[in-house]
């Protein structure tokens, strides 16, 4: 019984310990790194938006043909 209680206490303790180590290793990105990340995200947004627009542009006429025929 004592071993089970010890293992139940050990899991959160190790989680907190690893979390504190992670937070100490984290650092803010410098300006160059931040701009690079922002550019990558902007390109991703534009790409996904373009793909979504093209899919919707193709889907509307096909949907009208299928639904209009019924």
Question: Can you walk me through this structure?
Answer:
The chain is 90% helix and 0% strand. The protein is elongated and about 75 Å long. It is built from two helices and no strands. The model has no long low-confidence stretch (mean pLDDT 90). By secondary structure, it is mostly helical. The longest helix has 39 residues. Keywords: Endoplasmic reticulum, Membrane, Protein transport, Translocation, Transmembrane, Transmembrane helix, Transport. It comes from Hirsutella rhossiliensis. It is a single-pass membrane protein. It holds the Pfam family SecE. It is found in: Endoplasmic reticulum membrane.
Terminal-residue CA separation: 70 Å
Q: What is the overall number of helices?
A: 2
Q: What's the order of the H and E elements? A: HH
Q: Name the structural class.
A: mainly alpha
Oligomer: single chain
Q: Compute the CA-based radius of gyration.
A: 26 Å
Binned strand content: under 5%
Helix content: over 70%
Could you give a short account of the major beta sheet? none
General form: elongated
Mean pLDDT equals 90
Count of β-strands: 0
Query: What ranges have pLDDT less than 50 throughout 5 or more consecutive residues?
Result: none
Topology:
Blueprint: H1 2-25, H2 31-69
Protein name: SecE/Sec61-gamma subunits of protein translocation complex domain-containing protein
Membrane topology: Single-pass membrane protein
GO molecular function: protein transmembrane transporter activity
